[in-house]
Amino acid sequence: MTDITITDKPELHRYEATIGGELAGYCEYNLLSNAIMFTHTEVLADHEGQGVGSAIARHVLDEARAKGQQVIPVCQFIAGWLRKHPEYVDIVQPASRRAFNI
């Protein structure tokens, strides 16, 4: 298993995933008054197929849950990941569950 480190970079409005100190992927977000909106997730080509995207999704959703934030998954990757992991549906904003078929 690849050692993936995920760090919040609030000044950039994104979480960054690194492997061995090298940027492997990121998830952009916007903080709203009552939720966190995930807008785009990208895994860099050299790191595709290494579980980076899933590690990012799990991390950002676990952190949102720990902070008591509701989630709006505008990002298609995060929305798709949520469809496969119903244990996270409780933190998805109710209107977003319908809008993104979660």
Automatic annotation (TrEMBL):
Domain N-acetyltransferase, first and last residues per copy: 7-93
Superkingdom in the source lineage: Bacteria
Pfam families: Acetyltransf_CG (PF14542)
Gene3D superfamilies with a match to the protein in the record: 3.40.630.30
SUPFAM superfamilies associated with the record: Acyl-CoA N-acyltransferases (Nat)
Keywords: Acyltransferase, Transferase
EC number(s) recorded for this UniProt protein: 2.3.1.-
Molecular function terms, GO-annotated: acyltransferase activity
The protein's name in its UniProt record: GNAT family N-acetyltransferase
UniProt source species: Variovorax ureilyticus
